[in-house]
Amino acid sequence: MQSVPAYRYEELAGFITGLVRNGTLPPGSRAPSLRQICKQRRISLSAALQAYRLLEDRGVLEARPQSGYYVRGGQVSLQLPAATKPSGKPTNVALSGMVFELLEYAADPRFVPLGCAIPSTDLLAAGRLDRFLARAARVKGAEHNTYTGPKGDLHLRQEIARRALRWGQALSSDAQHAVTQSAEAISPENIAITCGCTEALTLALKAVTRPGDTVAIESPTYFGLLHTLRALDLKVLELPTDATNGVDLSALERALEGGGIAACLFSSSFNNPLGCTMPTQNKLVVLDLLSKHDVPLIEDDIYGDIHFGEQRPPPFIALDRAGNTLYCSSFSKTIAPGYRIGWIAAGRYMRKVLEHKFALTLCGPGLPQLALADFLSSGSYDSHLRRIRRAFASNMEQTLRTIQDSFPKGTRASRPAGGFVLWLELPKSIKTSELFRAALDNGICFAPGPVFSTTGRYSHCMRISCGHNWHPRIEKGLRTLGALASAASPRK
Predict the structure, then answer these.
(1) CA-CA distance, 228 to 222, in Å (whole number)?
(2) Topology adopted by domain 382-488
(3) What b-and-e string marks burial along 374-402, b requiring 16 or more CB atoms within 10 Å of the CB?
(4) Does the pLDDT at position 368 exceed 60?
């Protein structure tokens, strides 16, 4: 008797299951997108979706909001970190002396690299970029051995602006209109190349604040930003922040109503260290509030290109009809941190930004900018991004499973949909500054929670970097760290 052929969706489900069983799709890896699988298997979107939902029911795949489908490993059941509750009062910036020690040990290859948020060299594109640099030096070295204008290389600015045009492709019609309105703010003429994102943020802060002013920030926030704010003699207001949705909108509104906020400085996507991404609707609310109170927004979007979902989350500047956003980013997390190439799109604040740029650094080196522009225009960046997104997503999944198996009961962990850092909240009895010392004695470096706040909060929290390819050494380091944390937790 002739067997009845399977439905197309069943055939696809069997195909994906086979890839999982033979190791082609390992646990934690991202399954082919619906668009990819439809093209590869010549199947309809509805059939592909039906197959993926069947695989969800069978426990083979799991869907992650705004991220796609992933191969299930051991189920990660860790709770998310609780929403933060800082004091709600402006404070002077007090710095942790542990930061410089952290940076020293994080750069030492003898330590398991869970500390600084810098991807490993084998994941980055520095080798290919170096070849573009060598060619630029050989062909145009003499021509570019001079000062550029303060805005930097025009070709590079054009490539950045061209990529920014994609930001609004997945938005609603209303949001699309906002993107159209903001296109001028991200044109080549309104972009300046900087020495990494740090200089971009510094220039933005100098353009819209004066010493003594208060800047509203997420809490916890990147420790390098706290150093910048301290250097500029600025106060900070740490706002309650949720590991999924970002800044608490009610707290922001109350702060703005109270007056005295000179600027807000928020991450667009996958913030460091919480990994949160504010939903698009919330971003629109933030922009309306800031426009109402005439408070500028400084946007840090350094992780925006490292998204695990189909679409890049739209940055604030792509939604800002009022032109009130100073956008800052960098290629340090995706291509080559050593090249120190970042950029700022400052809109109506560009003149002030350029005045400060001229005074601080005049301009950046021309040849690296030319090499990066050639790299971007070659199309190599997009294929490179696809590769590192898969790697970071897999690293993060395996790190989370190891944390669940090895860390004390009650540990909570973030679930970023991009980037490569995790925020852990341990039982409150554990002091991560003490755990940091014990970890160093065991050849492990991580970032203790207190360095991410100006008030010494988050003493029981830590940030873990997933920027290196998964390796037995990293797994062993995580398990050792979990054992040290468990030993520091009182037994009940």
Answers:
(1) 10
(2) Aspartate Aminotransferase, domain 1 (3.90.1150)
(3) bbbeeebbeebbeebbebbbbbbbbbbbb
(4) yes
Q: What would the CATH number be for the domain defined by 124-381?
A: 3.40.640.10
DSSP state of 151: T
Q: Which pLDDT score is estimated for 58?
A: 72
What's the confidence (pLDDT) of residue 171? 47
**pLDDT over threshold 80, residue 178:** no
Ranges of CATH 1.10.10.10 domains, the chain = 8-71
Distance CA 261, CA 214 (A): 5
Rounded CA separation 177/171 (Å): 9
- The label of the residue with tokens 């399954």 reads 31
User: What is the architecture, at CATH level 2, of domain 8-71?
Assistant: Orthogonal Bundle (1.10)
- In whole angstroms, what separates CA 265 from the centre of its chain? 15
Q: Report the pLDDT value the prediction gives residue 2, as an integer from 0 to 100.
A: 39
pTM of the shown model: 0.83
Q: Where in the chain is the domain with CATH 3.40.640.10?
A: 124-381
* Helix, strand, coil percentages, rounded to 5, for the chain: 45, 15, 40
